[in-house]
Every structure is written in C-alpha cells, then in structure tokens.
Amino acid sequence: MNIARVRGSAAVLGVAVALCATACSTGKSSTAAASSGAPVTGKITLTYLQKQGDQQYFIDEADGAKAKAAQLGIGLTVVNLGDDANQTVSDVQAAVAQKSSGLIIVPPDPAVGPQVVQLAKDAGIPLLTSDDQVCTNGPDPASCATANLVPRVGFSGTQMGTDVGKKAAELFVKAGWNAADTRTISAWKQDVTVCTDRVKAAKTSFAAGAGAAVQDIDVATDNTPTGAQDKVAATITANPGVKHWVLWGCNDENVQGGVTALQNAGVSADNVIGVGLGAYLACKDWGSSQPTGMKAALYISGKNIGALAVQTMYDKLKNGKAFPQEADAPTTMVDATTWQSAGVKCS
Questions:
Q1: Collapsed DSSP state (helix, strand, coil) of residue 278
Q2: Could you tell me which residue ranges the Periplasmic binding protein domain spans (predicted)?
Q3: φ/ψ bin of 314: left (φ > 0), alpha (ψ from -120 to 50), beta (otherwise)
Q4: Residues 193-251: pLDDT tens digits?
Q5: CA dihedral over 226, 228, 230, 233, signed as positive or negative
Q6: 47/52 Cα distance (integer angstroms)
Q7: N or C terminus of the chain with fewer C-beta within 10 Å?
C-alpha cells in the first residue's frame, strides 16, 4: 500500500468535508429538498463527470445527456475526468461548490468511489453512476455488498459478455479451427469491475458454445487501443505456435488493439476472430475495403445511457422518484453487413 497516497487522499477528503461544511450550509433550497427526498421546485442543474471523455462512447454519452437535458429544460455541465482519480475528487468538489442539484459520475478508478460518495452525502446531493459501479464503503465494487453499491445506469456486464462469448463461439465453430492451435485472448483493465464481469461472462459463454476446450490467455491492459496493442503483441511473441486467434475484451479499444497487433505480426485476417464491444471502432474496419480480423461487435449506444442517466436523475429531483438499483439499456450484435442499419456511429 502507498501510505503517502492514502494520507494524501485523507487530506483531500478532509478539505472537501470542510469545504462542504461552509458551502453546503448556505446551499439552495433545491439541495435540501433533494437530500430529504422531496421534489425540487427550483432550477435543476446537473454535473456529469466522465472518465476518458475523449473516447467515442463517452462523447456519445455526453451528447445523449445534453440532448435529454435540453428536452427537460434543465442545466447540465459535462466534465472530462480523463484517467486521473485525484482530479476526480477536485472536480466533484467543484461541482459541490457550484451547487449542482445532482451528480452523475463514471469514475476513472473505482477506488475513489467512497470519497465521491462522502462528498455527495455531506453536500446533500443525490449521486448516480453510469457505466461503472461504485461502492459506498470500499475501493472494490466486486467485493461490495449490493446494498452498498451506488445506483447505476448502464449495460449489464454479464449479459454483454455472454453475447460476445456466444458470438465468438459461433464464429469459431463456423471457421472449423483446431482447438489445439487456437488461443483466445481476454483483454481488459483488470481493476474495473464491469470489465471483469464482461470478460468473465464471455469466457463462460464461449466455453459453453465452442464445442472444444480452447486455452485462454488473460491480457491486462489500460483499455486503450495502443495499450492493448502493446500487450497483445507481447502475447503473440510468447506463443509462436498459435495459428488462430479469438479476441474479446472490455471494449472495442481492446479488441481493435489486439487485431492491429496480430495484423502487424503477419497473422492473416482469416485466422483472427475479433468480437468487439461498442462497435464504434469496429465499424471503421468494416467501412474500408481491407480484410479485417474484427468480425463482429456488440453495439452499445452511449447516447442511450447518457439520456437515461439524466432522465433518472431528473425523476429523482423533480418527482421524488427513487433511483432503481440498476437500470440497463438494450444492446445489438452487429457485423460488416448490419452496422449501418443499426445506427452505429464510427469514431
């Protein structure tokens, strides 16, 4: 454990609590109403804080949130947290100081969750997460009791992974590959609970549908294309006898990076089955005339999640409607022949 970091975080939290003690005591009546569960009668303003706000999925999510806020006639500020957990605390403090009526967050690191929860609680501001889970009393949502998880709007990680693994198994069986010279790669940022849920379900689903036992290789990445490319490239080098590769991961970035690494290593697209998650990068390959190992992808609409998160927060603030513990949006499996009709937007 990094003691200095822990002490630094504690100090930041102390400052945040002190800030809230002064700022929140003179907050608008809407904040007090939200805290008590009563409907807000004044102007509603929300802050949507997103990790990796420059990724296409989160750009779409922000667009969906903005459109819904405009429709509802409420204020919305979108904040890009990048990958900085420390910045997350500062930006939540800023939202509190600006008297935001409600906070929606996708944290870059789940470990910062309890600090964010405490800041919102002390300020009397409702907190909702989108996409990723946050635990109220611990850094790891995977070991958190359901009662201690912050209400979330997103996609079912288990269902998404199941769909990806099922599709990968179908394509593997259709290809007629020998399991002995095939490997599956599971690529994801391993400290993100929703990613682990997706990958775990994909493994289980693939194993059930493949009809043969294929060795799986876990690859730890940072959930970016370049990060995945570097790690998968090393995996390829370490497994020189493999002829066929099946890839899945937490998002399109992981699969796209893996497909690129295999291409650079001279592996033919015919010997690669990549099943993405998002489709916003997969469609770029399908829009070109070049062969690609990206054979399918599960389409998830960030716009739908952004809009649903804002609507859910609005219903809480305006009508006193309790948050659902989980609110899931639908998904669609697409490929080179169906992505355009499904409405996929390429990044």
A1: strand
A2: 51-321
A3: alpha
A4: 889 999 999 999 999 999 999 999 999 999 999 999 999 999 999 999 999 999 999 99
A5: negative
A6: 16
A7: N
Q: Is 56 left (phi over 0), alpha (psi -120 to 50) or beta?
A: alpha
Tokens of 256: 């796209």
Neighbours of 138 (CB within 10 A): 15
Q: How far apart are CA 145 and CA 196, in angstroms?
A: 17
Total number of residues shown for the chain: 347
d(CA 168, CA 295): 9
Q: How many CB atoms lie within 10 A of CB 290?
A: 9
Domains, the chain, ordered by start: 45-154+303-330 (3.40.50.2300), 158-299 (3.40.50.2300)
- Residue with structure tokens 């459109």? 67
Residue type present at position 229: Q
